[in-house]
Design a protein that fits this description.
By secondary structure, this protein is α+β, with helices and mostly antiparallel strands. Helix content is about 20%, strand content about 30%. The chain is built from twelve helices and 30 strands. The longest helix has 25 residues. Bound molecules: copper (I) ion (4 copies). The site of one copper (I) ion has 6 residues, from strand 29. The site of one copper (I) ion has 4 residues, from strand 5.
Protein backbone atom coordinates (compact mmCIF):
# COMPACT_ATOMS: atom_id res chain seq x y z
CA UNK A 1 0.00 0.00 0.00
CA UNK A 2 1.31 3.46 -0.87
CA UNK A 3 2.11 5.77 2.00
CA UNK A 4 0.13 8.97 2.46
CA UNK A 5 3.17 11.29 2.00
CA UNK A 6 3.98 9.57 -1.28
CA UNK A 7 0.40 10.03 -2.47
CA UNK A 8 0.47 13.69 -1.50
CA UNK A 9 3.80 14.30 -3.28
CA UNK A 10 2.51 12.44 -6.35
CA UNK A 11 -0.57 14.66 -6.31
CA UNK A 12 1.53 17.82 -6.25
CA UNK A 13 3.80 16.47 -8.99
CA UNK A 14 0.75 15.78 -11.12
CA UNK A 15 -0.67 19.20 -10.30
CA UNK A 16 2.63 20.77 -11.24
CA UNK A 17 2.61 18.99 -14.57
CA UNK A 18 -0.97 20.05 -15.22
CA UNK A 19 -0.16 23.69 -14.39
CA UNK A 20 3.03 23.72 -16.41
CA UNK A 21 2.58 25.20 -19.87
CA UNK A 22 4.22 24.17 -23.08
CA UNK A 23 5.41 27.02 -25.28
CA UNK A 24 6.02 26.21 -28.92
CA UNK A 25 7.95 28.59 -31.15
CA UNK A 26 8.38 28.05 -34.88
CA UNK A 27 11.25 30.21 -35.92
CA UNK A 28 12.94 30.61 -39.29
CA UNK A 29 16.04 32.68 -39.78
CA UNK A 30 16.66 34.86 -42.83
CA UNK A 31 18.63 37.91 -43.86
CA UNK A 32 16.87 41.22 -44.16
CA UNK A 33 17.76 44.90 -44.28
CA UNK A 34 17.18 46.74 -41.02
CA UNK A 35 18.35 50.00 -39.51
CA UNK A 36 18.32 49.54 -35.72
CA UNK A 37 20.20 52.72 -34.82
CA UNK A 38 18.65 54.81 -37.59
CA UNK A 39 22.10 55.59 -38.97
CA UNK A 40 22.86 52.67 -41.24
CA UNK A 41 20.74 50.13 -43.07
CA UNK A 42 22.26 46.67 -43.33
CA UNK A 43 21.58 42.95 -43.35
CA UNK A 44 20.65 41.46 -39.98
CA UNK A 45 19.35 38.03 -38.98
CA UNK A 46 15.55 38.11 -38.91
CA UNK A 47 13.15 35.83 -37.05
CA UNK A 48 10.23 34.86 -39.29
CA UNK A 49 11.00 37.91 -41.43
CA UNK A 50 10.90 40.29 -38.47
CA UNK A 51 13.31 42.19 -36.32
CA UNK A 52 14.15 42.26 -33.45
CA UNK A 53 13.81 38.71 -32.18
CA UNK A 54 10.97 38.12 -29.71
CA UNK A 55 11.48 37.80 -25.98
CA UNK A 56 10.61 34.43 -24.48
CA UNK A 57 8.62 34.57 -21.26
CA UNK A 58 7.80 31.36 -19.42
CA UNK A 59 7.13 30.15 -15.89
CA UNK A 60 9.39 27.96 -13.84
CA UNK A 61 8.53 24.36 -14.73
CA UNK A 62 7.24 25.14 -18.22
CA UNK A 63 8.28 23.25 -21.31
CA UNK A 64 9.81 25.11 -24.23
CA UNK A 65 9.84 23.74 -27.77
CA UNK A 66 11.61 25.74 -30.44
CA UNK A 67 11.52 24.51 -34.03
CA UNK A 68 14.41 26.43 -35.48
CA UNK A 69 14.70 26.38 -39.26
CA UNK A 70 17.85 27.79 -40.77
CA UNK A 71 16.69 30.00 -43.63
CA UNK A 72 20.11 31.60 -44.05
CA UNK A 73 21.43 30.36 -47.38
CA UNK A 74 25.07 31.02 -46.58
CA UNK A 75 25.59 30.34 -42.87
CA UNK A 76 25.01 27.60 -40.34
CA UNK A 77 23.19 28.42 -37.14
CA UNK A 78 22.48 27.19 -33.59
CA UNK A 79 20.69 28.38 -30.46
CA UNK A 80 21.99 28.57 -26.91
CA UNK A 81 19.90 29.44 -23.87
CA UNK A 82 22.30 31.43 -21.79
CA UNK A 83 22.24 30.55 -18.11
CA UNK A 84 19.83 27.62 -18.38
CA UNK A 85 21.15 24.51 -16.70
CA UNK A 86 19.67 22.07 -19.25
CA UNK A 87 19.66 19.31 -16.66
CA UNK A 88 19.58 16.00 -18.54
CA UNK A 89 19.05 17.93 -21.78
CA UNK A 90 22.66 18.71 -22.63
CA UNK A 91 21.78 18.05 -26.29
CA UNK A 92 19.84 21.36 -26.32
CA UNK A 93 22.60 23.58 -24.93
CA UNK A 94 23.21 24.78 -28.46
CA UNK A 95 27.00 24.76 -28.82
CA UNK A 96 28.17 23.59 -32.26
CA UNK A 97 30.66 20.72 -32.07
CA UNK A 98 30.19 20.34 -28.33
CA UNK A 99 26.52 19.61 -27.72
CA UNK A 100 25.20 19.47 -31.28
CA UNK A 101 26.18 19.89 -34.92
CA UNK A 102 25.71 23.27 -36.57
CA UNK A 103 22.33 23.53 -38.27
CA UNK A 104 23.02 23.84 -42.02
CA UNK A 105 20.82 25.90 -44.37
CA UNK A 106 17.25 24.59 -44.82
CA UNK A 107 17.41 22.22 -41.85
CA UNK A 108 15.20 22.37 -38.76
CA UNK A 109 16.42 21.54 -35.30
CA UNK A 110 13.92 20.98 -32.49
CA UNK A 111 14.99 22.28 -29.09
CA UNK A 112 12.80 20.70 -26.45
CA UNK A 113 13.40 21.16 -22.73
CA UNK A 114 11.85 22.17 -19.42
CA UNK A 115 13.00 24.91 -17.04
CA UNK A 116 12.44 23.05 -13.77
CA UNK A 117 13.95 25.19 -11.06
CA UNK A 118 15.35 28.36 -12.43
CA UNK A 119 13.84 31.81 -12.53
CA UNK A 120 14.92 35.31 -13.46
CA UNK A 121 16.54 37.01 -16.43
CA UNK A 122 18.31 34.97 -19.07
CA UNK A 123 18.72 35.25 -22.80
CA UNK A 124 19.11 33.17 -25.90
CA UNK A 125 21.51 33.57 -28.77
CA UNK A 126 23.12 31.84 -31.70
CA UNK A 127 26.37 30.16 -30.70
CA UNK A 128 27.70 30.06 -34.25
CA UNK A 129 30.68 32.26 -35.13
CA UNK A 130 29.68 35.65 -33.74
CA UNK A 131 26.33 35.39 -35.54
CA UNK A 132 24.28 36.71 -32.63
CA UNK A 133 25.94 40.11 -32.97
CA UNK A 134 24.10 40.34 -36.29
CA UNK A 135 20.86 40.28 -34.31
CA UNK A 136 20.02 36.64 -33.53
CA UNK A 137 19.31 37.01 -29.81
CA UNK A 138 16.60 37.87 -27.34
CA UNK A 139 15.61 37.91 -23.68
CA UNK A 140 14.51 34.71 -21.95
CA UNK A 141 12.55 35.51 -18.80
CA UNK A 142 11.50 32.80 -16.35
CA UNK A 143 8.87 33.86 -13.85
CA UNK A 144 9.33 32.57 -10.33
CA UNK A 145 6.67 30.09 -9.24
CA UNK A 146 6.97 31.62 -5.77
CA UNK A 147 6.90 35.23 -4.76
CA UNK A 148 10.08 37.17 -5.33
CA UNK A 149 11.85 38.33 -2.14
CA UNK A 150 11.02 41.96 -2.99
CA UNK A 151 7.98 43.98 -4.05
CA UNK A 152 7.43 45.68 -7.35
CA UNK A 153 4.57 46.93 -9.47
CA UNK A 154 5.70 46.29 -13.02
CA UNK A 155 8.18 44.06 -14.74
CA UNK A 156 10.17 45.52 -17.67
CA UNK A 157 12.95 44.03 -19.80
CA UNK A 158 15.74 46.18 -21.18
CA UNK A 159 18.39 44.82 -23.51
CA UNK A 160 21.57 46.76 -24.21
CA UNK A 161 24.34 46.08 -26.72
CA UNK A 162 26.99 47.66 -28.85
CA UNK A 163 26.11 47.81 -32.55
CA UNK A 164 28.29 47.44 -35.65
CA UNK A 165 27.61 49.01 -39.02
CA UNK A 166 29.14 45.93 -40.68
CA UNK A 167 28.07 42.33 -40.77
CA UNK A 168 30.05 40.16 -38.41
CA UNK A 169 30.80 37.69 -41.20
CA UNK A 170 32.55 40.56 -43.01
CA UNK A 171 34.47 41.64 -39.92
CA UNK A 172 35.76 38.18 -38.95
CA UNK A 173 38.18 37.75 -41.88
CA UNK A 174 39.57 41.24 -41.24
CA UNK A 175 39.92 40.50 -37.54
CA UNK A 176 41.48 37.04 -37.81
CA UNK A 177 44.11 38.21 -40.21
CA UNK A 178 47.88 38.49 -40.27
CA UNK A 179 47.41 42.15 -41.11
CA UNK A 180 45.83 42.51 -37.65
CA UNK A 181 48.70 40.94 -35.71
CA UNK A 182 47.78 42.56 -32.39
CA UNK A 183 44.25 41.13 -32.50
CA UNK A 184 42.63 44.57 -32.29
CA UNK A 185 38.87 43.97 -32.04
CA UNK A 186 36.60 45.64 -34.61
CA UNK A 187 35.24 48.96 -33.35
CA UNK A 188 31.46 49.21 -32.91
CA UNK A 189 29.66 52.37 -33.94
CA UNK A 190 26.78 52.86 -31.52
CA UNK A 191 24.90 51.51 -28.51
CA UNK A 192 21.41 50.09 -28.62
CA UNK A 193 18.74 50.32 -25.91
CA UNK A 194 15.99 47.80 -26.58
CA UNK A 195 17.28 47.54 -30.14
CA UNK A 196 17.18 51.23 -30.89
CA UNK A 197 19.42 54.26 -30.52
CA UNK A 198 18.22 56.91 -28.07
CA UNK A 199 15.40 54.72 -26.82
CA UNK A 200 12.56 55.75 -24.56
CA UNK A 201 11.04 54.13 -21.51
CA UNK A 202 7.57 55.37 -20.66
CA UNK A 203 6.95 55.25 -16.92
CA UNK A 204 4.19 55.97 -14.47
CA UNK A 205 4.86 58.14 -11.46
CA UNK A 206 5.43 56.66 -8.01
CA UNK A 207 5.78 53.15 -9.33
CA UNK A 208 8.34 50.47 -8.53
CA UNK A 209 9.66 48.79 -11.65
CA UNK A 210 11.57 45.56 -11.77
CA UNK A 211 13.92 46.43 -14.58
CA UNK A 212 15.74 43.45 -16.08
CA UNK A 213 18.85 44.82 -17.77
CA UNK A 214 20.51 42.30 -20.09
CA UNK A 215 23.71 43.02 -21.98
CA UNK A 216 23.12 41.02 -25.15
CA UNK A 217 26.30 42.36 -26.76
CA UNK A 218 29.33 40.44 -27.96
CA UNK A 219 32.11 42.79 -26.96
CA UNK A 220 31.72 45.84 -24.76
CA UNK A 221 30.86 46.23 -21.12
CA UNK A 222 28.66 49.22 -20.47
CA UNK A 223 28.16 51.69 -17.66
CA UNK A 224 24.51 52.61 -17.17
CA UNK A 225 22.89 55.21 -14.96
CA UNK A 226 19.73 57.31 -14.76
CA UNK A 227 19.66 61.02 -14.06
CA UNK A 228 18.43 61.60 -10.48
CA UNK A 229 17.34 57.99 -9.96
CA UNK A 230 19.08 55.07 -8.34
CA UNK A 231 19.02 51.32 -8.90
CA UNK A 232 18.42 48.73 -6.22
CA UNK A 233 20.06 45.53 -7.41
CA UNK A 234 17.97 42.48 -6.44
CA UNK A 235 19.28 39.75 -8.75
CA UNK A 236 22.27 39.03 -10.98
CA UNK A 237 22.30 36.33 -13.64
CA UNK A 238 19.10 34.82 -12.22
CA UNK A 239 20.37 34.72 -8.62
CA UNK A 240 18.48 36.76 -6.03
CA UNK A 241 20.79 38.96 -3.99
CA UNK A 242 20.26 41.09 -0.92
CA UNK A 243 19.14 44.55 -2.08
CA UNK A 244 22.01 46.84 -2.90
CA UNK A 245 21.52 50.44 -3.95
CA UNK A 246 23.77 52.09 -6.49
CA UNK A 247 23.73 54.95 -8.98
CA UNK A 248 25.99 53.27 -11.51
CA UNK A 249 26.06 49.77 -12.94
CA UNK A 250 28.85 48.14 -14.87
CA UNK A 251 27.48 45.32 -17.02
CA UNK A 252 29.68 43.07 -19.13
CA UNK A 253 28.30 41.27 -22.14
CA UNK A 254 26.06 38.34 -21.17
CA UNK A 255 25.47 39.61 -17.62
CA UNK A 256 22.02 40.44 -16.29
CA UNK A 257 21.11 42.88 -13.53
CA UNK A 258 17.60 42.88 -12.13
CA UNK A 259 17.11 46.23 -10.44
CA UNK A 260 14.26 48.06 -8.80
CA UNK A 261 13.68 51.60 -9.99
CA UNK A 262 11.17 53.70 -8.10
CA UNK A 263 9.81 56.55 -10.16
CA UNK A 264 9.18 60.08 -8.94
CA UNK A 265 5.84 61.53 -7.97
CA UNK A 266 6.34 64.46 -10.25
CA UNK A 267 5.61 64.13 -13.99
CA UNK A 268 6.81 67.53 -15.12
CA UNK A 269 10.18 66.37 -16.40
CA UNK A 270 11.77 63.53 -18.32
CA UNK A 271 15.15 62.08 -17.35
CA UNK A 272 18.21 60.82 -19.16
CA UNK A 273 18.96 57.09 -19.08
CA UNK A 274 22.63 56.93 -19.99
CA UNK A 275 24.72 54.16 -21.49
CA UNK A 276 28.42 54.43 -21.97
CA UNK A 277 30.90 52.09 -23.64
CA UNK A 278 33.76 50.89 -21.47
CA UNK A 279 36.28 52.87 -23.45
CA UNK A 280 39.21 50.93 -21.95
CA UNK A 281 38.17 47.91 -23.99
CA UNK A 282 38.58 49.76 -27.28
CA UNK A 283 41.88 49.73 -29.15
CA UNK A 284 40.95 53.03 -30.71
CA UNK A 285 37.96 55.34 -30.59
CA UNK A 286 38.20 55.99 -34.32
CA UNK A 287 34.99 54.74 -35.83
CA UNK A 288 32.87 55.13 -32.69
CA UNK A 289 29.88 57.35 -33.40
CA UNK A 290 28.26 57.33 -29.96
CA UNK A 291 30.48 56.50 -27.00
CA UNK A 292 27.69 57.81 -24.76
CA UNK A 293 24.12 57.22 -25.62
CA UNK A 294 21.24 59.18 -24.14
CA UNK A 295 17.88 57.46 -23.75
CA UNK A 296 14.84 58.84 -22.02
CA UNK A 297 12.80 57.91 -18.97
CA UNK A 298 9.56 59.52 -20.11
CA UNK A 299 7.13 60.71 -17.45
CA UNK A 300 5.47 63.23 -19.68
CA UNK A 301 5.30 62.84 -23.44
CA UNK A 302 4.62 66.54 -23.96
CA UNK A 303 7.67 67.61 -21.96
CA UNK A 304 11.00 67.86 -23.80
CA UNK A 305 13.29 64.84 -23.98
CA UNK A 306 16.31 65.05 -21.68
CA UNK A 307 19.75 66.34 -22.60
CA UNK A 308 22.74 64.11 -22.23
CA UNK A 309 23.43 63.59 -18.53
CA UNK A 310 27.14 63.12 -18.55
CA UNK A 311 29.05 61.92 -15.54
CA UNK A 312 32.55 60.73 -14.71
CA UNK A 313 31.52 59.16 -11.44
CA UNK A 314 30.72 55.85 -13.08
CA UNK A 315 34.43 55.10 -13.06
CA UNK A 316 34.64 55.06 -9.27
CA UNK A 317 31.12 54.59 -8.05
CA UNK A 318 29.79 51.63 -10.00
CA UNK A 319 28.66 48.65 -7.99
CA UNK A 320 31.32 45.98 -7.47
CA UNK A 321 29.32 42.79 -7.88
CA UNK A 322 31.89 40.83 -5.88
CA UNK A 323 30.30 42.05 -2.66
CA UNK A 324 26.74 41.02 -3.48
CA UNK A 325 25.28 38.40 -1.16
CA UNK A 326 22.86 35.81 -2.53
CA UNK A 327 19.52 35.75 -0.71
CA UNK A 328 19.72 32.02 -0.09
CA UNK A 329 23.07 32.52 1.64
CA UNK A 330 24.79 29.50 0.24
CA UNK A 331 28.00 29.07 2.18
CA UNK A 332 31.34 29.02 0.43
CA UNK A 333 32.42 25.49 -0.48
CA UNK A 334 35.14 25.27 2.11
CA UNK A 335 37.53 23.41 -0.09
CA UNK A 336 37.83 21.98 -3.54
CA UNK A 337 38.36 18.43 -4.76
CA UNK A 338 39.77 19.37 -8.11
CA UNK A 339 41.54 22.53 -9.14
CA UNK A 340 41.87 23.66 -12.74
CA UNK A 341 44.40 26.43 -13.36
CA UNK A 342 44.19 28.26 -16.65
CA UNK A 343 46.28 31.16 -17.89
CA UNK A 344 45.02 33.57 -20.53
CA UNK A 345 47.51 34.62 -23.19
CA UNK A 346 46.95 36.37 -26.51
CA UNK A 347 49.66 35.61 -29.05
CA UNK A 348 50.39 34.93 -32.70
CA UNK A 349 50.81 31.61 -34.41
CA UNK A 350 52.79 30.78 -37.52
CA UNK A 351 50.09 32.15 -39.84
CA UNK A 352 50.59 35.58 -38.27
CA UNK A 353 47.06 35.63 -36.82
CA UNK A 354 46.53 36.65 -33.20
CA UNK A 355 44.94 33.86 -31.14
CA UNK A 356 43.80 33.52 -27.54
CA UNK A 357 45.12 30.70 -25.40
CA UNK A 358 44.38 28.93 -22.17
CA UNK A 359 47.60 27.24 -21.09
CA UNK A 360 49.10 27.57 -24.59
CA UNK A 361 46.15 25.85 -26.25
CA UNK A 362 43.79 27.80 -28.45
CA UNK A 363 40.50 25.94 -28.66
CA UNK A 364 39.99 24.10 -31.93
CA UNK A 365 36.66 22.32 -32.39
CA UNK A 366 36.77 18.51 -32.55
CA UNK A 367 35.56 16.54 -35.57
CA UNK A 368 32.76 14.95 -33.51
CA UNK A 369 30.56 16.94 -31.09
CA UNK A 370 31.99 16.17 -27.62
CA UNK A 371 28.57 14.97 -26.43
CA UNK A 372 28.62 12.46 -29.29
CA UNK A 373 32.06 11.31 -28.13
CA UNK A 374 30.74 10.86 -24.56
CA UNK A 375 27.83 8.78 -25.79
CA UNK A 376 29.87 6.60 -28.17
CA UNK A 377 33.09 6.05 -26.23
CA UNK A 378 31.93 3.57 -23.57
CA UNK A 379 34.55 3.15 -20.86
CA UNK A 380 36.88 5.59 -22.59
CA UNK A 381 34.50 8.48 -21.82
CA UNK A 382 36.41 9.29 -18.62
CA UNK A 383 39.70 9.57 -20.51
CA UNK A 384 40.36 13.19 -21.42
CA UNK A 385 42.38 12.12 -24.44
CA UNK A 386 39.33 11.00 -26.42
CA UNK A 387 38.07 14.61 -26.53
CA UNK A 388 41.22 15.67 -28.37
CA UNK A 389 44.38 17.45 -27.34
CA UNK A 390 43.36 20.80 -28.82
CA UNK A 391 39.94 21.23 -27.21
CA UNK A 392 41.27 21.94 -23.71
CA UNK A 393 38.89 19.35 -22.23
CA UNK A 394 38.77 18.46 -18.54
CA UNK A 395 36.82 15.49 -17.19
CA UNK A 396 35.01 16.20 -13.90
CA UNK A 397 33.97 13.55 -11.39
CA UNK A 398 30.43 13.29 -10.07
CA UNK A 399 29.67 15.85 -7.35
CA UNK A 400 33.23 17.01 -6.82
CA UNK A 401 33.81 20.65 -5.92
CA UNK A 402 35.79 22.22 -8.73
CA UNK A 403 37.89 25.31 -8.26
CA UNK A 404 38.77 27.12 -11.43
CA UNK A 405 41.69 29.55 -11.12
CA UNK A 406 42.03 31.93 -14.01
CA UNK A 407 45.13 34.08 -14.44
CA UNK A 408 44.80 36.84 -16.98
CA UNK A 409 48.16 37.57 -18.58
CA UNK A 410 46.47 39.98 -20.94
CA UNK A 411 46.09 43.72 -20.36
CA UNK A 412 42.37 43.66 -21.18
CA UNK A 413 39.24 42.76 -19.19
CA UNK A 414 37.44 39.55 -20.08
CA UNK A 415 33.92 38.40 -19.10
CA UNK A 416 33.99 34.62 -18.62
CA UNK A 417 30.92 32.45 -18.74
CA UNK A 418 30.31 28.88 -17.65
CA UNK A 419 27.52 26.85 -19.26
CA UNK A 420 25.34 24.52 -17.18
CA UNK A 421 26.11 26.15 -13.82
CA UNK A 422 26.28 29.18 -11.63
CA UNK A 423 29.46 29.46 -9.58
CA UNK A 424 30.67 31.01 -6.37
CA UNK A 425 33.18 33.81 -6.83
CA UNK A 426 35.80 33.07 -4.19
CA UNK A 427 38.29 35.76 -5.09
CA UNK A 428 38.87 38.39 -7.71
CA UNK A 429 42.18 40.25 -7.87
CA UNK A 430 42.49 44.02 -8.36
CA UNK A 431 43.40 45.77 -11.57
CA UNK A 432 47.11 45.31 -12.26
CA UNK A 433 47.20 47.45 -15.38
CA UNK A 434 50.09 49.47 -13.99
CA UNK A 435 52.12 46.47 -12.96
CA UNK A 436 54.96 45.63 -15.31
CA UNK A 437 54.06 41.95 -15.28
CA UNK A 438 50.74 40.16 -14.73
CA UNK A 439 50.07 39.16 -11.13
CA UNK A 440 48.88 35.55 -10.91
CA UNK A 441 46.87 34.03 -8.08
CA UNK A 442 49.17 33.20 -5.18
CA UNK A 443 47.86 30.27 -3.19
CA UNK A 444 50.07 31.03 -0.20
CA UNK A 445 49.08 34.69 0.15
CA UNK A 446 46.79 35.31 3.15
CA UNK A 447 43.19 35.73 2.07
CA UNK A 448 39.77 35.67 3.68
CA UNK A 449 37.04 34.57 1.30
CA UNK A 450 33.49 35.87 1.75
CA UNK A 451 31.30 33.65 3.90
CA UNK A 452 28.45 33.88 1.38
CA UNK A 453 30.13 34.49 -1.95
CA UNK A 454 28.43 36.11 -4.87
CA UNK A 455 26.99 33.58 -7.32
CA UNK A 456 26.47 34.12 -11.03
CA UNK A 457 27.21 32.65 -14.46
CA UNK A 458 29.33 35.39 -16.04
CA UNK A 459 32.15 37.24 -14.31
CA UNK A 460 34.91 39.53 -15.54
CA UNK A 461 38.59 39.34 -14.72
CA UNK A 462 40.55 42.56 -14.41
CA UNK A 463 43.65 43.37 -16.50
CA UNK A 464 46.74 41.26 -15.65
CA UNK A 465 44.84 39.87 -12.67
CA UNK A 466 43.01 36.68 -11.69
CA UNK A 467 39.87 35.16 -10.21
CA UNK A 468 38.90 31.94 -8.50
CA UNK A 469 35.46 30.38 -8.79
CA UNK A 470 33.97 27.18 -7.34
CA UNK A 471 31.04 25.00 -8.27
CA UNK A 472 29.84 21.50 -7.63
CA UNK A 473 29.93 19.06 -10.54
CA UNK A 474 26.32 18.02 -10.05
CA UNK A 475 25.01 18.58 -13.58
CA UNK A 476 26.26 15.87 -15.94
CA UNK A 477 26.92 17.29 -19.38
CA UNK A 478 29.44 18.81 -21.74
CA UNK A 479 29.84 22.43 -20.68
CA UNK A 480 31.73 25.23 -22.32
CA UNK A 481 33.69 27.79 -20.30
CA UNK A 482 34.75 30.74 -22.42
CA UNK A 483 35.23 34.43 -22.78
CA UNK A 484 31.91 35.93 -23.86
CA UNK A 485 33.62 38.54 -26.02
CA UNK A 486 32.77 36.89 -29.29
CA UNK A 487 36.02 38.07 -30.88
CA UNK A 488 37.99 36.25 -28.20
CA UNK A 489 35.91 33.10 -28.51
CA UNK A 490 36.66 33.17 -32.23
CA UNK A 491 40.34 33.43 -31.25
CA UNK A 492 39.93 30.22 -29.21
CA UNK A 493 39.54 31.43 -25.61
CA UNK A 494 37.64 28.41 -24.29
CA UNK A 495 37.90 25.18 -22.35
CA UNK A 496 35.48 22.26 -22.21
CA UNK A 497 34.26 20.55 -19.07
CA UNK A 498 33.14 16.95 -19.53
CA UNK A 499 31.11 16.55 -16.38
CA UNK A 500 30.44 13.03 -15.09
CA UNK A 501 30.43 11.37 -18.53
CA UNK A 502 29.37 7.98 -17.15
CA UNK A 503 26.20 9.53 -15.76
CA UNK A 504 25.56 11.24 -19.10
CA UNK A 505 25.72 7.80 -20.73
CA UNK A 506 23.20 6.44 -18.21
CA UNK A 507 20.67 9.26 -18.27
CA UNK A 508 20.96 11.06 -21.56
CA UNK A 509 20.65 10.37 -25.24
CA UNK A 510 20.19 12.45 -28.34
CA UNK A 511 17.09 12.71 -30.51
CA UNK A 512 16.79 11.40 -34.05
CA UNK A 513 16.42 14.99 -35.20
CA UNK A 514 19.73 15.83 -33.48
CA UNK A 515 21.43 13.08 -35.48
CA UNK A 516 19.70 14.20 -38.69
CA UNK A 517 21.25 17.65 -38.27
CA UNK A 518 24.72 16.09 -38.08
CA UNK A 519 23.99 13.91 -41.10
CA UNK A 520 22.70 16.88 -43.07
CA UNK A 521 25.90 18.73 -42.22
CA UNK A 522 28.09 15.75 -43.08
CA UNK A 523 29.47 15.68 -39.53
CA UNK A 524 29.98 12.36 -37.73
CA UNK A 525 28.56 12.09 -34.21
CA UNK A 526 30.28 8.88 -33.09
CA UNK A 527 33.95 8.49 -32.29
CA UNK A 528 36.70 10.41 -30.60
CA UNK A 529 37.72 13.98 -31.43
CA UNK A 530 39.34 12.67 -34.62
CA UNK A 531 36.14 10.75 -35.52
CA UNK A 532 37.93 7.47 -34.90
CA UNK A 533 35.41 4.84 -33.79
CA UNK A 534 37.80 1.86 -33.76
CA UNK A 535 40.50 3.08 -31.44
CA UNK A 536 39.36 5.89 -29.17
CA UNK A 537 42.92 6.61 -28.08
CA UNK A 538 44.12 7.14 -31.64
CA UNK A 539 43.77 10.81 -32.50
CA UNK A 540 45.44 10.69 -35.89
CA UNK A 541 44.04 13.48 -38.10
CA UNK A 542 42.34 15.31 -35.23
CA UNK A 543 41.91 19.07 -35.71
CA UNK A 544 44.83 20.99 -34.26
CA UNK A 545 45.93 24.58 -33.99
CA UNK A 546 48.32 26.29 -36.40
CA UNK A 547 52.02 25.77 -35.62
CA UNK A 548 53.73 28.08 -33.14
CA UNK A 549 55.69 31.03 -34.37
CA UNK A 550 59.34 29.91 -34.28
CA UNK A 551 61.20 31.05 -31.18
CA UNK A 552 64.35 32.04 -33.19
CA UNK A 553 65.54 31.39 -36.74
CA UNK A 554 63.82 28.61 -38.62
CA UNK A 555 65.79 26.13 -40.74
CA UNK A 556 64.61 28.09 -43.77
CA UNK A 557 65.73 31.31 -42.13
CA UNK A 558 69.16 29.87 -41.35
CA UNK A 559 69.60 28.60 -44.93
CA UNK A 560 68.50 32.01 -46.24
CA UNK A 561 70.97 33.72 -43.91
CA UNK A 562 73.87 31.45 -44.96
CA UNK A 563 73.14 32.00 -48.65
CA UNK A 564 72.81 35.76 -48.13
CA UNK A 565 76.24 35.75 -46.44
CA UNK A 566 77.79 33.68 -49.24
CA UNK A 567 76.24 35.98 -51.86
CA UNK A 568 77.58 38.99 -49.96
CA UNK A 569 81.09 37.53 -49.74
CA UNK A 570 81.06 36.58 -53.44
CA UNK A 571 79.86 40.09 -54.30
CA UNK A 572 82.72 41.66 -52.33
CA UNK A 573 85.22 39.25 -53.88
CA UNK A 574 83.96 40.14 -57.37
CA UNK A 575 84.33 43.86 -56.66
CA UNK A 576 87.86 43.28 -55.31
CA UNK A 577 88.81 41.08 -58.26
CA UNK A 578 87.66 43.56 -60.88
CA UNK A 579 88.81 46.55 -58.84
CA UNK A 580 92.34 45.13 -58.77
CA UNK A 581 92.37 43.87 -62.34
CA UNK A 582 95.62 44.71 -64.21
CA UNK A 583 94.76 47.94 -65.88
CA UNK A 584 98.00 47.98 -68.04
CA UNK A 585 96.81 44.75 -69.59
CA UNK A 586 93.60 46.50 -70.35
CA UNK A 587 95.49 49.36 -71.85
CA UNK A 588 97.43 46.93 -74.03
CA UNK A 589 94.21 45.26 -74.99
CA UNK A 590 92.61 48.55 -75.93
CA UNK A 591 95.81 49.65 -77.73
CA UNK A 592 95.81 46.47 -79.78
CA UNK A 593 92.30 47.14 -80.94
CA UNK A 594 93.08 50.68 -82.17
CA UNK A 595 93.54 51.52 -85.85
CA UNK A 596 97.10 52.50 -86.98
CA UNK A 597 96.05 56.18 -87.18
CA UNK A 598 94.63 56.12 -83.67
CA UNK A 599 97.82 54.48 -82.38
CA UNK A 600 99.88 57.24 -83.95
CA UNK A 601 97.75 59.93 -82.31
CA UNK A 602 97.97 58.20 -78.97
CA UNK A 603 101.77 57.76 -79.18
CA UNK A 604 102.05 61.47 -79.93
CA UNK A 605 99.89 62.40 -76.90
CA UNK A 606 102.02 60.14 -74.69
CA UNK A 607 105.20 61.93 -75.82
CA UNK A 608 103.60 65.30 -74.96
CA UNK A 609 102.73 64.02 -71.48
CA UNK A 610 106.27 62.97 -70.54
CA UNK A 611 107.18 66.33 -69.06
CA UNK A 612 104.02 66.46 -66.98
CA UNK A 613 104.67 62.96 -65.71
CA UNK A 614 108.05 63.86 -64.41
CA UNK A 615 106.44 66.53 -62.26
CA UNK A 616 103.67 64.22 -61.03
CA UNK A 617 103.19 63.61 -57.30
CA UNK A 618 104.41 60.48 -55.57
CA UNK A 619 100.78 59.52 -55.06
CA UNK A 620 100.11 59.21 -58.74
CA UNK A 621 103.33 57.32 -59.14
CA UNK A 622 102.22 54.88 -56.54
CA UNK A 623 98.95 54.59 -58.32
CA UNK A 624 100.52 53.93 -61.65
CA UNK A 625 103.12 51.58 -60.33
CA UNK A 626 100.66 49.94 -58.05
CA UNK A 627 98.57 49.15 -61.04
CA UNK A 628 101.34 47.16 -62.59
CA UNK A 629 100.59 44.04 -60.67
CA UNK A 630 98.29 42.90 -57.91
CA UNK A 631 101.22 41.87 -55.76
CA UNK A 632 102.96 45.16 -56.31
CA UNK A 633 99.82 47.06 -55.56
CA UNK A 634 99.70 45.56 -52.13
CA UNK A 635 103.34 46.23 -51.49
CA UNK A 636 103.16 49.80 -52.72
CA UNK A 637 100.14 50.69 -50.74
CA UNK A 638 101.75 49.33 -47.61
CA UNK A 639 104.86 51.39 -48.41
CA UNK A 640 102.74 54.57 -48.37
CA UNK A 641 102.01 54.44 -44.80
CU1 LIG B 1 25.68 30.13 -21.78
CU1 LIG C 1 25.77 33.45 -23.77
CU1 LIG D 1 38.09 37.94 -23.73
CU1 LIG E 1 28.65 29.97 -24.57
Amino acid sequence: MRSVPLLISSFFLLLGNVLADTHVYNWTTSWGKENPDGLHKMDVVLCNGEYPWPDIRVKEGDRVIINLTNGLPDQNTSLHFHGLFQENTNEYDGVPMLTQCDIPPNETMVYNFTVPDQHGSYWYHSHTKGQYMDGMRGAFIIEDKDDAPFDYDEDVTLTITEWYHSMISDLIPEFLNRFNPTGAEPIPQTLLFNNTLNGTWNVKPDTTYLLRIINIGGFLSQYVWIEDHSFTVVAVDGVYVEPNETDYLYITVAQRYDVLVHTKNDTSKNYAFMQKMDEDMLDTTDGVIHMNSTNAVVYNSSAPLPDEYYSDNYLDDFLDDFYLVPVDKQELYDDYDYQIKIDVVMDNLDDGINYAFFNNITYVAPKVPALGTVLSSGNYSTNELVYGTNTNSFVLQKDEVVELVLNNNDTGKHPFHLHGHVFQVVERGPDYTDSEDPVPYNESAPYTAPEYPMIRDTIYVRPQSYFRIRFKADNPGVWYFHCHIEWHLLQGLAIVLIEDPEQIQKDQSVSENWKDICNANGVPYDGNAAANTNNFLDLTNQNVQVKNLPAGFTARGIVALVFSCIAGILGCAAICYYGMAQIPDMEKKVYAELSPEERLMLDKEDDDDIDDEEEASSDSKIKKEGSSSEKDGETKIISRS
